[in-house]
């Protein structure tokens, strides 16, 4: 762990993760409050899921364009601009909350606006890290970044729930707006490398858009890794972000604070990943991603207890049981998931050419967005059947598919490693 923290001596990296974590804190602070607010307004898992899916639509529409912007324009200026735009909207909503009520149409607009800024912002933001951190330090950088972000996830859901419960949605908008401005100031203080002249042939607009997808499909290992991300967004995320709050509040008659506690306490599992990453680093990327996937499968089995009516009655109305049960499951799930993401991100940061990185990330976001929209709507419909077994089966199928699509990555990497060993031992290329 201490060796990983040495990366903080890189001033640009420290500023980058400060900006990232501050912005993330405000966003999650808003998301947990908005989830509870929308769930209260609608009372329907389908409508709740539809609102969440609405936020993904801009990712699909604007995703490819955002990649072109990230690769061709000043990243620093654009990141600051989108931080300021989101901050102004949130402060405006804070002011509006004093004279009017935050109704569902206004929430629709807010979700679409913030999501549109987010998709135009994210590829640029993510493409900064590989330009300021040496390739051999990417695992350490991603490990520290992930840990700090997960620390924010410990604090933000609980504080967001408390702020929403005690002070209302307006105060939540205020905190989120200020967090975006802090993020913008931090990015302003960074000194990024000068953008060099683009290499290779100039592409047309349509070729630019397709470039990210071409990179994915040209490399079977990248395709395997990206497919895994697609399955995560299609099966796992919808269950976590729609299913868990719905089960706790609507099925088990838990309190809003129960959900906030589960979100905060179990995120400690994600923070613990920083202690595990250095221990297994020598096993290689392929094996570590596989370990993470297997670890994510374990808690899915415990979730199937929710298909038993006696177990549901045992949990219903008992905050201690509800919080303990979901905290244990999510602790294991997020420990494995965060461990997996560190190696997942480090792999494509080292493999994708810098001049095409933004378009690659944008293409991944588009694919993940399509998966999320489909997943949210399917999960919403499955929960509306009033039987938890159907969404649980949906989750189990998704997790099994994640393991299957990792097999090509694992086989190809093993063959490459064998060839490298032969070359090193004989001094001749295998």
UniProtKB/TrEMBL annotation:
The way it spans or sits in the membrane comes to:
Multi-pass membrane protein
The main location is: membrane
What SUPFAM superfamilies does the annotation carry? MFS general substrate transporter
Membrane spanning stretches: 12-36, 48-70, 91-114, 162-189, 230-253, 259-277, 289-307, 319-345, 357-376, 388-412
What domain of life does the UniProt record list for this protein's source?
Bacteria
Keyword Protein transport attached: no
Record flagged with keyword Glycosyltransferase: no
Q: Which UniProt keywords apply?
A: Cell membrane, Membrane, Transmembrane, Transmembrane helix
Q: Which Pfam families match?
A: MFS_1
Q: Where in the cell is it found?
A: Cell membrane
PANTHER family membership = INTEGRAL MEMBRANE EFFLUX PROTEIN-RELATED, MAJOR FACILITATOR SUPERFAMILY ASSOCIATED DOMAIN-CONTAINING PROTEIN
What's this protein's name? MFS transporter
The species is: Lysinibacillus xylanilyticus
């Amino acid at each position: 762990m201490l060796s990983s923290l040495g990366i903080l001596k890189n001033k640009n990296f420290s500023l980058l993760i400060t900006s990232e974590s501050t912005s993330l804190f405000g966003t999650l602070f808003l998301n947990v409050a908005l989830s509870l607010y929308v769930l209260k307004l609608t009372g329907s898992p389908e409508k709740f899921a539809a609102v969440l899916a609405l936020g993904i639509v801009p990712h699909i529409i604007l995703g490819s364009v955002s990649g072109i912007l990230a690769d061709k324009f000043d990243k620093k200026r654009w990141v600051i601009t989108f931080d300021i735009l989101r901050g102004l909207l949130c402060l405006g909503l804070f002011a509006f909350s004093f004279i009017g009520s935050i109704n569902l149409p206004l929430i629709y607009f807010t979700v679409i606006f913030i999501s549109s800024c987010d998709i135009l912002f994210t590829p640029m933001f993510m493409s900064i890290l590989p330009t300021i951190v040496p390739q051999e330090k990417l695992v350490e950088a991603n490990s520290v970044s992930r840990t700090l972000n997960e620390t924010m996830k410990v604090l933000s859901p609980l504080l967001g729930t408390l702020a929403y419960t005690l002070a209302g949605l307006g105060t939540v908008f205020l905190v989120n707006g200020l967090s975006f401005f802090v993020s913008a100031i931090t990015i302003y203080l960074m000194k990024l490398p000068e953008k060099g002249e683009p290499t290779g042939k100039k592409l047309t607009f349509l070729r630019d858009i397709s470039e990210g997808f071409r990179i994915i499909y040209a490399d079977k290992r990248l395709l395997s890794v990206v497919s895994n991300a697609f399955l995560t967004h299609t099966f796992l995320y919808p269950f976590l972000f729609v299913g868990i709050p719905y089960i706790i509040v609507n099925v088990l008659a838990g309190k809003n604070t129960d959900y906030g506690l589960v979100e905060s306490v179990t995120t400690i599992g994600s923070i613990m990943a920083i202690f595990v990453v250095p221990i297994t680093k020598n096993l290689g990327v392929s094996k570590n991603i596989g370990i993470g996937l297997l670890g994510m499968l374990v808690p899915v089995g415990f979730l199937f207890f929710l298909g038993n009516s006696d177990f549901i009655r045992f949990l219903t109305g008992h905050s201690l049981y509800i919080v303990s049960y979901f905290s244990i499951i999510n602790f294991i799930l997020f420990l494995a998931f965060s461990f997996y993401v560190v190696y997942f991100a480090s792999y494509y940061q080292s493999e994708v050419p810098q001049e095409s990185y933004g378009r690659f990330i944008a293409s991944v976001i588009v694919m993940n967005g399509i998966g999320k929209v489909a997943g949210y709507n399917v999960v919403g419909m499955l929960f509306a059947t009033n039987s938890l077994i159907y969404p649980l089966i949906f989750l189990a199928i998704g997790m099994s598919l994640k393991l299957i699509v990792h097999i090509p990555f694992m086989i190809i990497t093993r063959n490459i490693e064998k060839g490298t060993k032969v070359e090193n031992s004989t001094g001749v290329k295998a």
